[in-house]
Description:
The complex is a heterodimer.
Chain A lengths: L1 H16 L2 H33 L3 H6 L2 H25 L1 H9 L1 H6 L5 H22 L2 H9 L4 H28 L3 H17 L9 H10 L1 H9 L5 H26 L2
Helix pairs in contact in A: 1-7, 2-4, 4-9, 4-10, 5-9, 7-9, 7-13, 9-10, 9-12, 9-13, 12-13
Chain B lengths: L1 E10 L2 E11 L4 E5 L6 H8 L7 E6 L2 E2 L4 H7 E4 L11 H11 L4 H14 L15 H13 L5 E5 L7 H15 L3 E5 L3 H7 L2 E6 L2 E7 H4 L5 H10 L1 H17 L1
Parallel strand pairs in B: 3-8, 3-9, 6-7, 7-8
Antiparallel strand pairs in B: 1-2, 1-4, 4-5, 9-10
Helix pairs in contact in B: 3-4
Amino acid sequence: MRNALAIAGKELRSYFVSPIAYVVLTGFLLLGGWFFFNLLSRFNFLLSIYSAMRNPEAQTRLNLNEFVIAPLLHNLSVVLVILIPVITMRSFAEEKRGGTYELLMTSPLSITEIVFGKFLGAFVFLLVMIGLTGVYPAILLLYGNPEPGVIAAGYLGLLLLAVAFASIGLLTSSFTENQIIAAVSCLVLLLLLYVIAWPAETAGPTMGAVLKYLSLTEHFGEMVKGVLDTKDLVYFVSVIVLALFLTHRSVESVRWR
Amino acid sequence: MIEVRNLTKRFGDLVAIRDISFTAATGQVLGFLGPNGAGKTTTMRVITGFMPASSGTVKVGGFDIFDNSYEVRKRIGYLPENPPLYADMTVSTYLQFVGRIRGIAKAELGEAVDRVLHTCGLTNVTGRVVGHLSKGFRQRVGLAQALIHNPSVLVLDEPTIGLDPRQIIDIRTLIRELAGDRTVILSTHILPEVSQLCQKVVIINAGRIAVEDTVENLTRDMSLEQVFLRYITKDADADAGASAGAPEEAAS
């Protein structure tokens, strides 16, 4: 554990010493702010129209959770698909290219410690990244009356989604010493997981159910609605554990190939 | 201290090293010579546990590199051909990190870092970013990382490459001082370095051991240059001699 923490600390330091962290964080917050501003403007616009039309029924159906936070979280999840491969692409690829892989592999460290340390570093970074977007719902909570429980479930979903993405990013990075290849293959995998349920409606009942189960968006969507189901939690945890397990195998195969 | 036995390493069809055996005792500095591509780096990578051998065994301090890789890695300090440095760290954070992953207790970490900073002449650059250092300083940081956990075995892959004459002399003095109670394996292309530093020489050529003997015995009749050239050029003719030695070692 101590060794894993040392690796995690090194990873975090290298995120924040290089400009990558700041570029990624700035981009993420910039886009998030733009989404939030537009969603909120639209919400206000609808509110003013409905009150002008004196349509109290429609007005009661307008709520901040459904009209601002849910679409915001969905938009942020798309941005994460693109940004997370950039965050994780260096993790193993750069060590291999820079020769520091030899240092790690000839030190008295277990592969589990190396993989878990790198995972932990990425996890803390994502925690910071997603935590910073908490300012948007904080504003809503301050000036409006959204449901905090639903927000919390949605944010938990976003965090799990990001961590699952990062685990897949660690996996693709462990395959190669080329960061571009690591990032692109991660991006493709994430997009695939994102759109895998598209043929679900036409694929027949069994296949459709399987595809829907595999789809990240299905599980994420449920959590954004405020539904905390073990089925969705199990899905995310399985993706994370499977990706980390395969990363472990991949790193080990380099040692004993 | 180091016992290499019938080591073979294949990369697909390519045989990088073939049936290599040699030993190095405690306190000995072993010079590992051979032309480029002879298999020196591969052998060192196997000894340090970075790669597995296809067959054969390595024992370091009595521990087998395959069965007890963890114990071996704790005892080895390794300076690869390209020093394994994180370019964005400062010298002292880098050494602290290496110290931690090599298992130095937190209370002793500061002392260990100070010690290697001092032995490797890095006290003036502790706060500098590693990526901005000159080649010579980077090499010294690489050496410092190999020494930080006070290993009983040092494996140095061309430690003086790219250094200026003054730094070469410094590093040689350092290696001589370090040898004392340690075992050092040193690969190099600089033959005078071997005569100055090493007690024992192993010359490998095309993945096979060409000769293993003490510097004294080898240089009795001719210079080390002549010995080196003889063993690496007359490989085909000397094959009889080499293979005469090989079965003997295999049998023992």
